[in-house]
Amino acid sequence: MTDLSEIPAKHGVKNVYADLGQIFAQSTIANPKVSAAMMAQLVQGLGADHVVWGTDAIWTGSPQWQIEALRRLEVPEDMQKKYGFKPLGPADGPIKTAILGENNARLYKYDRRAALCHRPRRRRQGGLRGERRAAQQPPLRLRRGRARLRRRADARAQAIRRRAGCSVRLKGWRTRPRISSVTTPSKGSSPDSPEMTGV
Fold it and tell me: Lowest CB count within 10 Å: 121, 128, 171, 179, which one?
C-alpha cells in the first residue's frame, strides 16, 4: 500500500488509482487502526480524487456494512500527529463522498442528475400489434386502477425530479435538466433535441 501511494511522487504520474474493496473489508475486521492508516496513506499519496470504491467487496456478502464502516472510520489523533496524516472527515464529507461514488461517476462520465431527470417516452403500439392489444384490453375498472397507480407514480417521480433541480413538465413524458448555457437550436428542432446541451 505504501509503494502504491508513493508512485505519483516518485514518477510524476497522475493516472494511478487505488481501489478499495476486499482489502478494506478484511483490514477493517482484523485491525481498524491498520485500515485507517491504509486509507490515510492512499489519500495522502494519491489524493482523495484518486481513491475509488471497488466492486469486489461482494465476496464478504452485502457491502452495506463496509460502506458504513468507511463512513465511520477516522484516523486516530496519535497517528495524525506522528505520521502527518489528515483526518478523513465526517461521513458525508468530501473525502468519503468522493471515494464512495463521486470519483467513479467522474471517471465513467456518469451524470447522476441528468440520469435522474431523464425519463424515456412511451412507445405507442400501432398497426396489427396495436389492434391485438386493444382487443385484449382488461376490464374498465382494472384499467382505471392502473391509470390511478400510474398517476401516483408520475407524481412521485416529478417530486423527486423537482428536488434534484430538474425542470418538470406536468404534461407529457419528457423532462430535461436545468442547464447553465444552451446552444442556439436550429430551425425546426424541438427544445428536447440533442442540439441543446449544457456546458
Answer: 171
